[in-house]
Queue: 2 jobs
Job 1
Amino acid sequence: MSTPRFLTLPAVARSVRLETARGGFAALCARPPGGPVLGTALLLPGFTGSKEDFIALLEPLALAGFQVVALDQRGQFETGGPDDESAYSLESLALDLRAVTAAVDGEGPLHLLGHSFGGYVVREALLRAAAEGGPLPWDSLTLMSTGPGPVCAEEAGRAGLLVSVLPPVMELEAVWQAMQELEAASGEVPETTPEVADFLHRRWLANVPASLRVTGLRLTTEPDRVDALAGVRLPKLVLSGEHDYAWPVPEQAKMAERLGAPHVAVAGAGHSPNAERPADTAAALADFWSSVS
C-alpha cells in the first residue's frame, strides 16, 4: 500500500465531499493560490489506497497552476460503499468516475491520472467513453505505476493470499495484525510517524471487504487492453518509479511504447512516486499537463 509521509493539508487544500449522481465521494481539493488556473487534475488511488496517497502532490501542483482533486473511490476509506461485490466491478467504478468528473467544477483542460489499480479504472472509463463516440470528458491520461495486465506473479500470489483471508474468513483487524507480523518478519516495515501509522491502521479498517475482494482479485486477472487504449486519441503519459514490485518498470516502459506515449521513471522512487518523490513527480506531471492544450 502507499504510505503518505505526512497528513497535514497544505494551505491551498481542503477536504470536501463531492455529491454526484452516484452518491457522495470523499476528496481532497487544492487550487492555485493566485494567478490563472492552467487545468484541473483528477487523481485516483490504487488497491488499499486513498486520496491521502496524493497529499504531497497537492501543494506543488497547485503552485504550478493546477487545480487538483484526489479521490477515495467507492469502498475506500471515507467514501464507503455497500458490502455487495457487484458495486466494485470495473464497470461500476468507471461509472463512478464519470459521475465524479461531471460533478467536478474544473477549469481548463481536465487531466485524468490513475495510480496502480486506479490505472485499470481510468482505462476502463476512457475505453467506455470512447466507445460512446463524441468528445471525451478528459483531455489527457496518465498511468502511474500500473501495467498492461495483471501484476507480476509474486505480487499476484500476495494479493491472492490476502483475498483468501478477508471477511468472512478473518476480520479486518485480524488480517491487519497478520500483515504487520509478516512485514516485521521480512524487514519491510516502512518508516512512519505514529500519526501516519495510526492513519494506515484506520484506513485499512475503513475498507469495505467486498471492495478488497473484488479489486484484489482483479489485480491478478486483468487482461492486457493496451492496444485498445492506444486507439483512443488523447495525450498519454506513463509514469513510474525506477523500480516497482507490482509491475516491472521495463514492462511499463514497453506499455508506453505501445501507447505512443512518453515514459518517465522518477529517480529514487518505487511503486508510489507520488508519496516517495513528490517534488519530482509533480514536476513531471506539470510538464506533461502544460503541454496539453
Job 2
Amino acid sequence: MPEAAAVHVASGKVRELFALDDERLLLVASDRISTFDVVLPTDIPDKGRVLTGLSAFWFGRTTEVCPNHLLALRDDGRSTECRRLEMLPIECVVRGYLSGSGWKDYRATGAVCGHDLPAGLQESDLLPEPIFTPSTKAITGHDENIDRRRALELVEGAQFDAVEQYSLALYRFAAEYARGRGIIIADTKFEFGLDAAGRVVLADEALTPASSRFWPVDGYRPGGPQPSFDKQFARDFCESQDWDKTAPGPELPGDVVAGTRARYIEAFERLTEVSFDDYLAGPEVVLA
C-alpha cells in the first residue's frame, strides 16, 4: 500500500497513481484486466505483479536503448517509484507481424497507419520490417490507429521522431531477446513522456502480456490467429459473448481466469528466467 504521505492523483484502467513528492510518483498495478478498452468485472490474480516485474525487467535491460522512468521497485511486487513526466498524448505501437487492428486495416486498405504493405499477406504474417503505427489515447471509447500526419497534430515533429526511433529500437532489442527464449513479440505498445529538461523518456509499462502480443515460437503458423501468452485468451472469450464492447464487460469464468493467469506467469518466467515464486519473495531479483 502507498505510504501515508502519498496522495492519490489518478486511476487508470489497471493502475492507481500516487504523488510521493514534486519529482516522484508511485504506480500501483492492480489485477484488473481490460479488453477492447473496457475494464472487466473479473480480476486476474497476480496480474499486477507480473506486469510490474516484467516491466522492471525490461527497464533494467534497455537503459542503453532509451531512458526510462523507473526509480525503484517496491517489496510488494506491484508498486514502482517513478520520475514525474509530462505524458505525450499518443500510444506508440510497433508491429512486427500482421495481427489485430493492423490486420483489419490491411484487409480494408492494403495499408496500416500510412504504411503501404505488400499485397497478398496473410493474418499473422511476418512483416518485411517492423513498422511504427501510433494511435490516439482515448479518454472514453476506443483508441484509434493514426498515421504520421495525424500524430503530428498531437505532438511536435522532434518528439514524434524520437518516440518512433526509440519504439523501433526497443522492439528490435526485445524481439530478438524474446525469440531466443521461445516467444515471438508480434506487436507491442509503448508510452513516453517528457522530463523536466524536455527529454523523451519511456514510461508506464513495457513489453508485458497486457501491452503486447506474445506468441510461442514453436506454435507459430501464419494464416490465422496464433496461440498466445497474453490477454488474447481473455479477449477471445469476450469476443465469443453477445457483447457490444462497451461497459460493463462480461464476467470471466474460472477457467478463463486461471488460463489467463497461467499464460501471464509463463511469459514472465520464460522472459526473465526467474521463477514467479522467487519474484514474489524478492522482486528486485528481476533487476539483477
